[in-house]
Design goal:
The chain is an alpha/beta fold. Helices cover 39% and strands 25% of the residues. It folds into two domains: 2-95; 106-323, Glycosidases (TIM Barrel), CATH 3.20.20.80.
């Protein structure tokens, strides 16, 4: 409850700031317009312009909330040239990058009573449903997953520690074998910690060695997951280091015959990585919702968790994979 109240307070506070900024902008626009016309503004005319601008903006926001729109969507509509990320009650604003954009809209997806999304758009001819499992998925019946329309599985296989040592997930090997027996397509992903090119190369080599045991059992498309550090801001120097780290790991995997892809949530993609440098690699997006707000191209979307699927003990995430 405290967290909900904190998020509500931050949302209201931010909306107030936005309103005041836009009111000031509207007032300034009115002043410049009147000046351009060669008229001298009186205090009364200035106040009238300010009031009209404020009333217009408040009216638009009132209409949006009356229509049932959530505060975050209203804030995002006020910043079309920014990517606005909600981070547990605080907000981050990122400028749009000059990289290929996605073209999804809310009407491109339909959700059933189990929380499973179906793509109804026209751009992609082949869109497959799948699941994403990790160490919190205790047991799963992959045959039942297939019966419920799941065609592939992303399996979290482990992570690197700060010394670039790979810590494999013990459950993943067992799950991989069961998924293979059920005839599901298997994709593996791991978490990197490399903050520079040297560390990225080491982690890439370690991962290639580990993957030798699974050649022929999983796809050669390997996910490299990046996670935004919780205790430090990602300044430009840090962003450069993280980007060089994942690029180095990608190069090692590519030279070994694999197809590396980069996995992250919207905050990590926008705030931790230099996206223009990563254009050569496909992306797996982790963003929960009924349609992807993230504005750039991606291949696989992990959009939410479901407890409505039959045959699962523990948590399982739902995914869509877009193939042209």
């Amino acid at each position: 409850m405290k967290r909900d109240n904190h998020q509500k307070f931050n949302t209201i506070y931010l909306i107030n700031i936005i309103i005041m900024c836009l009111i000031s902008l509207a007032s300034l626009s009115g002043i410049l317009y009147m000046t351009f016309r060669g008229s001298r503004l009186t205090n009364l005319e200035t106040e009238k312009a300010r009031t009209e601008g404020r009333d217009a903006l408040l009216g638009q926001m009132e209409d949006a909330f009356r229509e049932g729109r959530d505060p975050l969507s209203v804030i995002r509509s006020l910043y079309p040239d920014r990517v606005v990320i909600d981070d547990y009650g605080s907000y981050s604003f990122y400028p749009l990058e000059d990289v290929p954009r996605s073209s999804f809209a809310p009407e491109d997806f339909e959700k059933d009573e189990r929380g499973i999304l179906t793509y109804t758009g026209t751009r992609f001819e082949h869109v497959r449903s799948g699941i994403d499992i990790n160490q919190n998925t205790f047991s799963i019946d992959f045959e039942k997953m297939k019966e419920q329309g799941m065609e592939f599985v992303n399996i979290y296989a482990g992570r690197f520690n700060s010394r670039q040592e790979f810590l494999s997930d013990e459950i993943s090997a067992d799950q991989m074998q069961k998924a293979e027996d059920a005839g599901m397509e298997i994709f593996v992903y791991v978490t990197l910690t490399a903050r520079n090119a040297e560390a990225g190369e080491i982690e890439g080599q370690e991962l290639v060695s580990w993957l030798e045991n699974w050649k022929g059992h999983c796809s050669d498309e390997i996910g490299l997951q990046m996670v935004y550090p919780s205790r430090e801001p990602a300044n430009e120097i840090a962003r450069l280091g993280w980007t060089e780290g994942v690029l180095a790991a990608c190069r090692v995997l590519k030279e070994a015959g694999y197809r590396p892809v980069i996995c992250a949530d919207d905050k990590t993609f926008c705030g931790l990585l230099d996206l223009p440098q990563l254009e050569d690699y496909s992306k797996w997006l982790q963003e929960y919702g009924d349609y992807p707000y993230y504005p750039y191209e991606f291949q696989t979307w992990r959009y939410g968790a479901s407890i409505m699927l039959d045959g699962v003990d523990g948590s399982v995430f739902l995914c869509l994979r877009f193939e042209e």
